[in-house]
Amino acid sequence: MDAHATRARATLAAVAERAGVSRSTASLAFSGAGPVAPETRDRVLEAARTLGYGGPDPVARSLRRGRTGIVGVVIEDRLREAFRDPMNIPMLDGLADELGTAGLSILLLTDPTTAGSDPGVPAVIETAPMDAVVLVGCSTRLDASVALLRRRRIPIAAIEAEPMEGVLDIALDNRRASALGAARMHELGHRDIAVVTLPLGPEHSAGALAEDWEARATSFPAAERLRGVLDVYDTLRGWMAPASSIASGYTAGLSILADPQHRPTAVIAQSDLLALGVIRAADELGLMVPADLSVLGFDGIRTEGYGGVELTTLVQPAIEKGRAAGRGVLRLLAGEPAPPVLLRCTLRPGQTVGPPAA
Amino acid sequence: MDAHATRARATLAAVAERAGVSRSTASLAFSGAGPVAPETRDRVLEAARTLGYGGPDPVARSLRRGRTGIVGVVIEDRLREAFRDPMNIPMLDGLADELGTAGLSILLLTDPTTAGSDPGVPAVIETAPMDAVVLVGCSTRLDASVALLRRRRIPIAAIEAEPMEGVLDIALDNRRASALGAARMHELGHRDIAVVTLPLGPEHSAGALAEDWEARATSFPAAERLRGVLDVYDTLRGWMAPASSIASGYTAGLSILADPQHRPTAVIAQSDLLALGVIRAADELGLMVPADLSVLGFDGIRTEGYGGVELTTLVQPAIEKGRAAGRGVLRLLAGEPAPPVLLRCTLRPGQTVGPPAA
DNA sequence: TTGCAGGGTCGAATCGATTCGATCGAATCG
DNA sequence: CGATTCGATCGAATCGATTCGACCCTGCAA
Description:
Chain A has 14 helices and 13 strands. By secondary structure, chain A is α/β, with parallel strands linked by helices. In chain A, the strands form two sheets. A seven-stranded mixed β-sheet of chain A has the order 7-8-6-9-10-11-13, sandwiched between helices. In chain A, strands 2-1-3-4-5-12 form a six-stranded parallel β-sheet, sandwiched between helices. Chain A starts with 11 loop residues before the first helix and ends in a 10-residue tail after the last strand. The structure holds a DNA duplex.
């Protein structure tokens, strides 16, 4: 039924000629913008069918209109890593939801500075056709790309990134929330705590936190969360996990809790997955949570799938992060001013935090 | 430092004029395709900097070159649903990996037929600029869009879809694998089994499998897996889950195992998440797995994060699905023939399947 | 009968690059 | 020294649409 498959792809001009109308009229027949006699429209559509014409070429249309209908989403690291973080999914979903209603789709881009990239070859983030860009969990390494995007007049929104000139900031109160959680711990009487952090730098290695962590940190949320705890506790033991996962938390937990003589009474983890890992380690070492050890998480994932522990944790509005970014981008595209957004986390009491053993 | 931010966005023509060279030379200076005197190049680059030119416009370049560097990935349902399925992540990762090395990025598209879409307004899948398309877990509802893409001469690959003319098929041996698993159950002596299926149709409702399921099924993998079991067991109890999740499996498990007088000795689940849910239900009803009930999964997820049960399951090569699709698309784009791919699942013995109680 | 509104159509300019073929001077070769 | 090649540059065509302003006709009001 696929009609005469001609050699070359048909163009609107060919369709117009075949229908005996001008290109402009043929265009109007397809786009519906402007008056066209029903009979003429039918003739054009008929010609299109005969020629196997698949509708106006999206690229040509984009060039003329100045809009591609594409919003780039730049995600740090590899896709696999990114999707392992349970917070990214609802965020993306909120974003897609908000953009989708405006007819925009999402182009997945990975941070070019992570891959082994030629400095000579321009990164895809700099050459992809996009109307706007959303940076998520991106570090300052992207500065060069951001500058380029700005020169190309492409609106940029950044989720949980260090505020940048000319970039719409969708922030989370990571520091305040962490301080809140830490204060709660302190209030309960904990004096010796440990923090398990997300990867702070680009190297993603595991180990005790170095003295100069702040100077080398590139992950803004991780640094902010750590600062929040330090706002309450001057001294603490820090352990950096190589990723946000149960396995990494487990390893971290084993290290931190190994020495019975020198055990913290509480662990503040920078993600729920890490917290679950720490709990598993505690479990294995025969420690009861929260009687022997309190564990505080961060994120507010639904833990039902993970063994059913009810984590005490700082819940972040993940979907709303995406939604806010989507709405912001839409406003910027419409030429309207878009105010920065600050989202707040809340402490959700669970069954993993209590007073320290006497 | 951003130089004279001129009113209008600068074009290559403006840069060329400013540098005192022709547009063609300016173009060569940027693309590097062709000989340009170093001094000339510098002059062009300098002019670009002065004018705040951000490099060649991707859309214009795409129009001329006939390539966008974008591959659309059509995912059924909403993103949230899609990413909940643990098999989609590694698949996407494999795909991104393979496409990334060729400089292509992924445009996320959702099945337009699911959303409440105007039939008048063309779906984004039909108007997005793309070089190729990968359909994943898509049903025959997409037929119209597929026809359009074909008319636009856009190569299409489909993962686990019903084979279609002109669409590169990346298949999984769902039926054979399921039959294999079922045969193993039969071999062990199970005579009364139940199957928990993935959503078979678009409605995503839960409940006992209807007689006419085959006629109404739109999900090809789910149907194939069910057929595989039916190749071994003529009669069985079927229960359709509304989604691939632990919660759905749990609900299904409770329904299937509720009546002690009429309990199957084994449950074949169409995904590991469903299997884990069934196991949880069995647990709650005081049934030992595999002593009182055998449970077979499908997918081969790493279950460590989910409570540590070692599932007996049919392992599918998820990353390879994505890779194969990626490679296939690349070949099609290069104009080479791309052979269809058939990937095989393997039965991985765990601790959830055994002989029925005597 | 004239004037005017407006539906329908068309021609031409435009979006912003890439690329083919031609040109021209300088260097190389026999 | 003439022929050839090669490097550097340019002009013009091209990619495939959208859209603005102009034009023509018809119908209706004054």
